[in-house]
Amino acid sequence: MGKKSRVKTQKSGSGASAVVSPKEMMNLISELLQKCSSAAPSAGKEWEEYIQIRGLVEKIRKKQKGMSVVFEGSREDYFPDLMSWAQENGASCDSFIVTNFGAEGYGLRATRDIKAEELFLWIPRKMLMTVESAQNSELGPLYSQDRILQAMGNVTLALHLLCERANPASSWLPYIRSLPQEYDTPLYYQQDEVQLLLGTQAVQDVLSQYKNTARQYAYFYKLVQTHPAASKLALKDSFTFDDYSYAFSSVLTNKVMQLLLANTVNTYGVDRGTYLKLYWNTSKGLIVVVDRFAG
């Protein structure tokens, strides 16, 4: 279930702007924020609220068509640049290769036997996009003046990602270009797909996630467009709902792997050909460990 979100690709730079006045867009955004900030609907009215919110979002998406900053080519076209960038910045990249695992997508495959307790992949922290790096970036002035942004680490990372993606000189571009170009998450379900979940335990989470994402986007869109500290942000002219949803999904899907089974490699080691997926975050950098054994 779930139609994947898709990011159209062309070279980085300013996207083609849709014909829509700033006032018209701000009115729609304000209406969306008001709708998403209202009291929770009474029991049985959640679906009706979802339809109303989705209707506003679709109006906004239609008017924002063509405004995104995007890249040419496919994701795998940028893997060589990613590996070169990693090596240049001090990452250890000699124990694995990037491999397509079919339905599971791209991942790392061990190219040699790795012994228990052996450090086989090290990524310096300077390569990581973190809340700390966001504070030290062009997003820093806005971050320092908005308490809601300070309280929402995932949102900070999503905006950080969008700012760097819109900046042709960003040091993280080799990484950003290598990110998946699409996701298959509940946030991107079509309305008829969500409707199939009515009567199940899952539907409430799906409706809540959509409402929360719409509220966050509306709030931060207004903030980016009106706050003096955001006047020079690279994403100011290309901050679309689709981009925010994509960036937020990128943050969530890249964080859920942390800390699970982190002692596997220390206890057992891994064999050549093992699929390396999980990572471990430390104060100085990132250590990759195994998610499962091959076979």
What structural keywords apply?
2 domains, mainly alpha, globular, SETD3_SETD6_MTase, set domain protein methyltransferase, domain 1, disordered C terminus, disordered N terminus, EC 2.1.1.85, protein-histidine N-methyltransferase
Q: What order do the SSEs take from the amino end to the carboxyl end, as H and E?
A: EHHHEEEHHHHHEHHHHEEE
The CATH H-level homologous superfamily of the largest domain:
set domain protein methyltransferase, domain 1
Based on Cα principal axes, name the global outline.
Answer: globular
- The main sheet orders its strands as 2-3-6
Determine the fraction of residues in helical runs and give it as a percent range. 40-55%
Overall structural domain count: 2
- Number of E strands: 8
Number of contiguous helices: 12
Span of the ends, CA to CA: 27 Å
The CATH class label of the largest domain is Alpha Beta
Describe the structure.
It is a single chain. With 295 residues, the chain is mainly α. It folds into 2 domains: 19-65 and 128-255, set domain protein methyltransferase, domain 1; 75-127 and 257-289, no CATH class. It has 12 helices and 8 strands. The strands form 3 sheets. Strands 2-3-6 form a 3-stranded antiparallel sheet, with no helix packed on it. A 3-stranded antiparallel sheet has the order 4-8-7, with no helix packed on it. Strands 1-5 form a two-stranded antiparallel ribbon. Strand 2 (96-100) and strand 3 (106-110) form a beta hairpin. Helix 1 (22-37) crosses helix 10, helix 2 crosses helix 10 and helix 7 crosses helix 11 (241-255). The protein is globular, with a radius of gyration of 20 Å.
